[in-house]
Amino acid sequence: MQKNNIPKVPEEDRLFRYVGDFEGKNVLITGGMGFIGSNLAIRLAGMGAKVVLLDAMIPDYGGNLFNIKPVESMVTVNFGDIRNDNTMNYLVKEKDYIFHLAGQVCHVMSLTNPFPDIDINIKGAAVLMEACKKNNPGVKVIYTGTRGQYGPSVHLPVNEEAPTRPKGIYEISNLAAEQIIKVYNDIHGIKSVMLRLTNIYGPRAQMQHHRFGVVNWFIRQAMDDETLKIFGDGKILRDFLFVNDCVDAIIMSAATPEAYGEIFNVGIDRPTNFIELAEAIIKVAGKGKWEFAPFSAERKAQEPGDFYSDISKIKRIIGWEPKIGLEDGLRGTISYYEKQKKYYW
Ligand SMILES: NC(=O)c1ccc[n+]([C@@H]2O[C@H](COP(=O)([O-])OP(=O)(O)OC[C@H]3O[C@@H](n4cnc5c(N)ncnc54)[C@H](O)[C@@H]3O)[C@@H](O)[C@H]2O)c1
Question: What confidence tier does 5 reach under pLDDT thresholds 50, 70, 90?
């Protein structure tokens, strides 16, 4: 056991074979107090990495101090902003890996105010990569973009060769950030992996408003015995990935030399429609009900239709595939929030 009772990654865990890649290594996670960043921090600390978290804790975004409770004495937290080049010039130094997860993540907000996306997601990526170029060009960078970068699917499942025709500013800003990071990989030799995440759900997501991930919001509503609103006919397909699987994909891609310079989908090749999703959540929560509701004009304009990820590339090159099915993931999520509700509601 390590300090604070975080168990070392056990032999039967698929990350066990990667412990040597991270033990004693210096790691920076931008957006580390947020949903995915904090889950990643807990796993990397369990692998023996020296973890620094950077987060601006912008109100209404996903940062939550409680998220890192299990590792608070094992990680270093820096409350700073990725747009600040002095901060970034300092923090990138001597790092072996940088996981870039900080961002404005609300695609609905990006329609009414595009500037946080442009400023945080696009400029922030450029500030980070310039800091790496000047201070630590040997670092490895892992970026988490979104499946929304594809826009409407031309075929299903969607592979990495599909056209990128994003339908909103958030999605454009993620695509721009990805391409900025790829330029620094291709031109300046800063090794980077670009991931396109599908809808991620699980413990440590913000649960106070509906503007982030739909699965977590439905979970809150079911736990509160409320009515889940399903837009349209509920038949739109999506892939919903549990955060532990997502974190494994991020860590495994960082530890795979062949992954650098490449773009990978991180998703699940078993699609679910929104009616199935709502019914599974209500079943696992043992509460709540659902009804149809009309799309708002904004949501309708941004809805890209059916999407699920082709994950054959990440399976082939990195050897990652999801392990946790929807019901198990929902059970894990609901049991977490049942215990820790007061920190999230
Ligand atoms: N959650 C998903 O379903 C999903 C899907 C696709 C892509 N992603 C991407 O993964 C990344 C992480 O998403 P998440 O769900 O953990 O979001 P999150 O909102 O929970 O975490 C993002 C964190 O970044 C921090 N942050 C925002 N602006 C910052 C700045 N200027 N400087 C420093 N910190 C800042 C926030 O305070 C927050 O803690 C994002 O880039 C997001 O676009 C997430």
Answer: low
User: Which atom of ligand 1 approaches the CA of 145 most closely?
Assistant: 7
Our mutation pick for probing the ligand 1 site, out of 105, 128, 242, counting the most ligand atoms within 8 A of Cβ, is: 105
Residues with CB under 6 A from ligand 1: 30-31, 33-37, 54-58, 61-63, 81-83, 101-103, 105, 120, 124, 144, 146, 174, 197, 199-200, 206, 213
Atom of ligand 1 nearest to the CA of 204: 20
Residue range 3-202+242-267+309-323, CATH number = 3.40.50.720
Which of 202, 209, 184 shows the shortest CA–CA distance to 194?
184
Number of H-type helices and E-type strands within the chain: 13, 13
Eight-class DSSP state of 282: H
| Average confidence (pLDDT) over 38-67 | 97
Contact between 56 and 102 (Cβ < 8 Å): yes
Domain boundaries, the chain: 3-202+242-267+309-323
Going by C-alpha positions, the residue among 179, 78, 163 that lies closest to residue 122 is: 179
CA distance 7 to 117: 37
pLDDT value of residue 1:
46
Tens digit of pLDDT for each residue in 144-184? 999 999 999 999 999 999 999 999 999 999 999 999 999 99
Query: Separation of 71 CA from ligand 1 center, angstroms?
Result: 19
Percent of the chain with pLDDT over 90: 90
pLDDT tens, position by position, 316-338 = 999 999 999 999 999 999 999 99
- Cα of 239 vs centre of ligand 1, distance in Å, is 19
The string of pLDDT tens digits covering residues 73-84 is 999 999 999 999
Q: Which atom of ligand 1 is nearest to the CA of 177?
A: 41
